[in-house]
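Ticket #4471: structure output looks truncated?

Reporter: J.K.
Steps to reproduce: submitted the chain below (223 residues) through the standard prediction queue, then opened the result file.
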Amino acid sequence: MTRANWPPFSAFQWPEIFNNLASMYQKVKIVIGDKYGRLTPVAIAGKNRYGRTTYRCICDCGNEVVLEGSRIAHGTVKSCGCLKGYGVSHSITYSSWRGAKWRCSYVKHPYYKYYGGKGVKMCQRWLKSFENFLKDMGERPSPEYTLDRIDPSGDYTPENCRWATIREQCNNRRNNRILTYKGKDYTASNFAREFNIPPGGVYYGLKKGWEPEYIIKKYKNNE
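Returned output as attached by the reporter:
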């Protein structure tokens, strides 16, 4: 482009261009557990250096990535990078094994501080080879399933791992509260769905120390 042709836009176009760019960074709503392309947000990761909310996402290939909410919502990023050809030479089962291994042992991995940095390890049998992992876990059932630790504070071992859906993993988060009603255990989100109660009402009741029976009675009477 020659100097004579610069800038590439007329002065009348700049306000429109600026507004379009600004709209991309307005507050967007990301629903945890929903699908955005090949990405499924599973938790809020924090804020980036610009103060924008970032999300921890699991890609269909099994890799995890932290992304800004606006990039997810507007579809500017649709995968961890595998759509561009990275990692597609391996199966989704291999990707899950590799991702867990890196989170526990590679200090530069973006999630190392949540796994290896907190003492979470992968057992030596799995570290030694992917073949051992495959023998113990079997093939990953489908892209909807990911490698989940039954005890979130435990290690990656045959006894503590399972293939689970995103919803099952969300129910397995450390900050979930368990309610026991008529001999059956529920997470707060499952309790809300089971008895058709607003999730906010369940969490409010837990904060107040209400029993499950009282939570049901209070919100059912208000219908």
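Triage note (M.O.): checked the attachment and the full token line is present. Residues 85-89 have pLDDT under 50 and may be disordered.
Status: closed, working as intended.
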